[in-house]
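[09:14] KT: can someone run the structure on this one? pasting the chain below
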Amino acid sequence: MSLMPDPTFYPSPRMAMQAAPERIAYVSLLNVGKNGKRDAMGVIDVDPRSSTYGQFVGQVDFPHDDNELHHFGWNACSACLCPQNPHPHMERRYLIVPGIGSSRIHVLDTKADPHRPKIVKVIEPEEFIKKTGYTSPHTIHCGPDGIYGSALGSASGDGPGGIFLMDANTFELKGPWEKERGPQNLAYDFWWHLGHDTMITSEWGTPNMVKDGLNPELLLAGKYGHKLHIWDLDKRRHLQELDLGAEQQMVLELRPAHDPNKTFGFVGVVVSLKDLSSSIWMWYRENGGKTGKWAVRKVIEIPAEPADPETLPPLLKGFKAVPPLVSDINLSLDDRFLYVSCWGTGEFIQYDVSDPASPSSEEAQGGSQWRSTDGRNQPRREARVLYQLALLSMGRSVLS
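[09:31] RB: done, structure tokens below
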């Protein structure tokens, strides 16, 4: 065991920004259909000085093809330096890879050869369900006292979904995290304000609501997630529910401020049933400090793009527009820029969030699928988004 902290653990966001950049990146490769191929973890060269920059330089195939790999994470990270529960001797070495389709978790060792990680443990669905009571593990975060994961539902495939714990050394499942769940039923992402002993969780749907793709009837009835939940991280109990309104469907990715003294963050909403817009909401603590109530407010709205109804699937004809479908967001380490990925229209937008309550759009990339060369909003039949929206109208999977 090393007596020095892992050099990739940083006591502050500023130190992380000043560190050397990563030279490789890992990306999950999902198999689609019964074609004999298997799910895999790909390795991409992200070193601009390398002759193989931007190329796949490695891959490890998984034993099965039914996992639908999702938000994997490391066994250890800078959270190991948290003063409430410090263990700096840990090593950022293992990738914990959940699959919502199979309820398996794969553990990959990257140390010997980072370009060709080795599968060292597979937690089968029977063990996962027995020890946690959950199915469909979705997101992994390394925490100050172990590995945390979210799961979409219960053993039956219905609610509630929630959080489970895993030992960071042995990778043994330790069971569900919650001691007092309160009204929380749907689950998706989770993050925290460690200095304020607070966890935030978001909502998508249960495994039975999403396993065959988005269900148009459930969507139009406002049955997918539209709430945030505030938890006491130390006592593991539910404190507060923040309802964005049933028209705000699929409250997904959470990005809290990196500054440990700040108590705000951003969450993306996939679609509004009112006008097909997507939006970004900010959660915050009223009056600051550690005793104020939490609140949430919309700070960014991204409108749908007008389109010819004749080119749209039935679900969208009445709207005469294409929804942005915000699928992911990311916050820069200095908490200055928020990056928003609009999966439906192909746009990637940078916002200045120096004033988090009043963001300003600085730059947008892409988004040309529905615009003619002169910049007007016009449908283009060759756009891939038509195919994806057609799948949406048939209730098949369009979100990962």
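[09:33] KT: thanks! Residues 192-198+216-231+244-400 form one domain.
[09:34] RB: yep, looked fine to me
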